[in-house]
Amino acid sequence: MAGTVVRVQMAIIKERLSRHGHFGTLMRMYGRPTLFGVAESFCMITFAPLTDSESHSMYPAGGGRRRRVGTSGKVMVVAGLTAVLALAGCSSNKTAGHDSNNNGQAAGSSSPTKSGSESKKPSASPTGSAAQISVTPSAASHTNPLTPIVVKASKGTLQDVTVTNPKGVAVTGEFAADKASWSTNEVLGYGKTYKIAASAQDSKGNVTKTDTTVTTINPSTAYPSVVPPPTANDIGVGMPLAVRFDKPIQNRAAVQKMLTVTSSPAQTGAWYWLSDTEVDYRPETYWQAHTKIRLDIKDYGKDLGGGVYGESDRTIDYTVHDSWVAKADGRSETMAIYQNGHVVKTMPISMGKQATPTHLGAHVISAKNREYTMDSCSYGVCHGPQHYRSKEYYAERISDDGEFVHENPNSVGAQGSTNVSHGCINLNQENAAWFYAHLGVGDVVEVTNSGGPQLPLSDRIGVWAVQWPTWQAGNATS
Asked: Between the N and C ends of the chain, which has fewer C-beta atoms within 10 Å?
């Protein structure tokens, strides 16, 4: 009976399919007899290909909601098929060699997806990610260490950026507020290769990654030493600031722009190039007492000329103590000591004899030693009757020509009346100890009426021998 019903229904279906033009209908039935003699079957209905318009209306290209077919005949076909399947015992249960999804579709078929009904999971693979990562400078270039490493993301945002130096130490940096870029905020080194690892994510959560390197230039460099050294931050009113490079400077104007001196209270000053390796700075007159001075050297990563680059930025702070100026007069054979413009002590002296007179002009104390061995060989007299070598006390150097203020018990009888030294200013023990205790590096000893020549600019600290207009003209930008 059931078999007869099935054959009758199939005939009806065939007639209806023919009526509506679906001649390609194919029914495959796989089954086996049951105890009741009814075929238990899995039925698969396959229609002939639809037209482009029908296909699009049933399965939109974007995978959106499925739309109804627009004719009543098509509805009747579906209804008829449903009846047959119900009577024939068609089942959605799995059968060997076949699978079904939750919508009852055969394995291998794809169901339309409703727009926005599923979220995309982030992918660790760059495949399919719209995000793109760029790194500057490029791996092929050799960059200046002052140039920051910049990582940018387009069509996405950066997730992680790591930059490491050759020792594996991370270089510091920071993201922009929108995480579209990241930049190092630490100065790089010369002649180093840095590794960059970065990842970015697009709006769908897909991730892309990149690994690259950046290499910096490795030029010849010049180091800027300073006088006075940073440890001598307490200085006198006469102390100039000297910057000395260990390689010749070809572009003085460029280098001078890398050097800045600020003082409080503010005082007019200027640079003067003594040679191609040294440039000095001094105010128009002595520094005011208790002035705060800062020297900034910003030459790292910068071309000093001739392919030589600055080796190191430096910032040094100095403080000027009380104004101490000693005025030594060869005519009166005395030396008056001024503290902040007032005479606080006067003492008898003996300066250089006629054969070795003391230089004229402003001398600046550059060093002091409680004990010091003096040797005429230091200024070229190593043999003959003018040669000497002796230990002296309370010695303070005032020139590179072997001139000191110091104790000399052998000239006490001549002090205050006759100049008998080799160019030094001799004191007795009491006065030498007092002088040593009160005056130091940067304080001034002005010499007059000695019969000697002017202390030259080429001496260790002969900067006050140059008149201000000449000094101003000695800078590279005048």
From this structure: N
Kindly state the tokens that stand for 343.
């005479």
What is the predicted pLDDT for the residue at 195? 98
Q: Is 406 a catalytic residue?
A: yes
Catalytic-labelled residue, pool 90, 363, 422, 424? 424
121 CB neighbour count, 10 Å cutoff: 8
Cα–Cα nearest to 439, from 306, 298, 309, 326: 326
d(CA 317, CA 294): 5
Condensed to tens digits (0 to 9), the pLDDT of residues 77-101 reads 333 333 333 333 333 333 333 333 3
**pLDDT of amino acid 76:** 34
- 387 catalytic, yes or no? no
**Catalytic, out of 359, 363, 406, 422:** 406
Over the Cα atoms of the chain, what is R_g?
48
Nearest to 217 by CA among 185, 193, 197, 246: 193
pLDDT under 70: residue ranges of the chain = 1-127, 478
